[in-house]
Design brief:
Helix 2 crosses helix 8, helix 4 runs parallel beside helix 5 and helix 5 runs parallel beside helix 6. The longest helix is centred in the middle third of the chain and has 29 residues. This protein is globular. It has ten helices and eleven strands. Helix 6 links the parallel strand 9 and strand 10. The strands form three sheets. It has a seven-stranded parallel sheet with strand order 7-6-5-8-9-10-11, sandwiched between helices. Helices cover 34% and strands 14% of the residues. It starts with a strand and ends in a 12-residue tail after the last helix. The chain has a domain of 239 residues: 3-Layer(aba) Sandwich (Rossmann fold). The chain is α/β, with parallel strands linked by helices.
Length: 346
């Protein structure tokens, strides 16, 4: 698949793919110039080999790359106002890392939250981290790849809190960067698809009837590696590409439900620390993004403050939302950008 990445401004500041350590999400299309930069241009001279060298890209002038919470998405006022009071949120992969922080942020903002993961004890530790909200948080043990477990988790959530407004499909896995397709255990390789694709699908499928009633929202945590040719990472990359496409179909088939695929940056979690990135990947040498950055971004995106234009699209937590709204919003909507598209050279 050939995906276009068009530059809005020739004078934009150069950045490298490592700014989204280790992944850059979806194609960013801005139909201002008559030229296109294609992902094939990011490959080395051999079409069939993936480059591990940093590739300079031009980013629109004025758009800041963020690695921590910044003023536009600062949740302090959202917490103080209890802006999510009366809302019910279900978060998968909630026993640690991004999922845990996101669940805690929703609870601190007044929401009732169902936390789903395999380890119920770890979920309880997350709940204990928000003392004032324990009565609005429940721990649910489930394997995200199990359809029946997903149905049961949604049912328990609705029985406890009466409704479901927001699903954050966060659970995911990543395998080693040290083995090729032939060298990886095929069962381990396919398990990536089971968790990253089926695990997202099972909970979206289970939640959709309730989300339709509530005009609800889906946030699917994905990865920019879907569109990067990093050797020995095909299982993860392909699985995340499937997630990005799934998000695009939700509002098409269920107009009352909105969906956004969110690149969280790269947060220090069990997954990112146990999988050793190759030294040749510049992203491996960069500092982690804080877990508060994606958690605050997700909180902002589901608050209903004029981000409907991102429905069915990809968004990176690293992009300053205020800057993007000001500089890119009209161009993104007009050009149907931030979605997966085939492209041909101009």
């Amino acid at each position: 698949m050939l995906l276009s990445l068009r530059n809005a401004l020739d004078e934009g500041a150069p950045i490298s793919l490592s700014n989204h350590r280790p992944c850059r999400h979806r194609s960013v299309g801005v139909p201002v110039k008559q030229h296109s930069l294609h992902l094939k241009d990011l490959r080395p001279k051999s079409h069939f080999q993936a480059s591990m060298e940093p590739q300079p890209l031009k980013f629109p002038a004025g758009v800041h790359i963020r690695k921590d919470v910044y003023p536009t998405i600062d949740p302090t006022q959202t917490f103080a106002a209890q802006s999510y009071s009366g809302k019910v949120v279900l978060v998968t992969g909630a026993s640690g890392g991004l999922g845990a922080k996101t669940a805690q942020f929703y609870a601190r903002a007044g929401a009732s939250v169902a936390l789903v993961a395999r380890n119920k004890e770890k979920i309880q530790d997350v709940i204990d981290g928000v003392p004032g909200a324990k009565d609005r948080m429940i721990a649910l043990s489930a394997d995200v790849t199990d359809f029946h477990a997903a149905d049961a988790a949604v049912k328990q959530t609705v029985e406890k809190f009466g409704r479901l407004d927001i699903l954050v499909a966060n659970a995911g896995v990543m395998t080693s960067y040290t083995k090729t397709i032939l060298e990886k255990d095929p069962d381990v390789y396919w398990r990536t698809f089971e968790v990253n694709v089926k695990g997202v699908f099972t909970f979206i499928r289970a939640a959709l009837p309730e989300l339709q009633k509530a005009n609800g929202q889906v946030i699917a945590v994905s990865a920019g590696l879907a569109y990067m040719n990093v050797p020995n990472n095909s299982d993860y990359a392909i699985s995340k590409l499937a997630v990005n496409r799934l998000v695009e179909f939700i509002p098409l088939e269920f107009p009352s439900v909105s969906a956004i695929a969110v690149h969280p940056g790269v947060v220090k979690t069990n997954m990112t620390t146990t999988v050793e990135l190759p030294d040749s990947l510049p992203a491996a040498k960069e500092p982690y993004d804080t877990p508060e950055l994606p958690a605050a971004t997700i909180l902002y995106l589901t608050l209903g403050q004029g981000v409907e234009w991102l429905n069915g699209r990809y968004y990176s937590a690293n992009w300053d939302i205020g800057d993007v709204e000001k500089l890119w919003k009209e161009k993104i909507v007009a050009g149907n950008a931030l979605v997966t598209q085939l492209a041909v050279p101009m």
